[in-house]
Amino acid sequence: MGFLTLLDSLAAETPLIVGGISFGAHLAAEWAVRNPDRCAGLLLALPAWHGEPAGAPASLAAKVSADLVEREGLEKALSLSVAGVAPWLAEELTRAWRRHGTGLAAGLRVAADRPAPTVDELRGLDIPVGIAACTDDPVHPMAVAREWAAALPRAVLRETTLTALGSDRESLGRAAVEAWRVSHAS
């Protein structure tokens, strides 16, 4: 996976603070589990599951989206997927999906099926961790973020909402950074 290889390369000189949103949060934590001596901290937003994805809402949504893209094509799938959602979310999905182009369905399937670090693996990470999650996000349940925060020895969790994210696109990142600062200070 290119992201993990890139982190390996970047961490050759100095430990890194790494992070991501949703699947990106899973990958960042996966890299940290494999490289605890090269990871200075984690900024994680919207973790969607731990361990096997099983019936996690984000995994199911990714699979349904992949099916839709394969069946209807990108533009029709986008039109159907953004109908009735908040304008900011429609804009974000449109930007992200189009960026993936023809690899979108395959990428969604990889994300949907890839295990995240287990709770036991998370317990072994003694590094500062900031976690941000939205209390009103059914795809990335707050309960999962709380489980990650409880498992990670030095994690701090900050809650926000999708509503806040819609009016302030930086609110989720700020929440993760604020949580990391508190975890780093303790």
TrEMBL record:
Serine aminopeptidase S33 domain mapped to chain residues: 9-155
The species this protein was found in: Amycolatopsis bartoniae
InterPro entries assigned to the protein according to its UniProt record, in alphabetical order: AB_hydrolase_fold (IPR029058), Hydrolase_4 (IPR022742)
Superkingdom per UniProt: Bacteria
Gene3D superfamilies linked to this entry: alpha/beta hydrolase
Protein's name according to its UniProt entry: Thioesterase
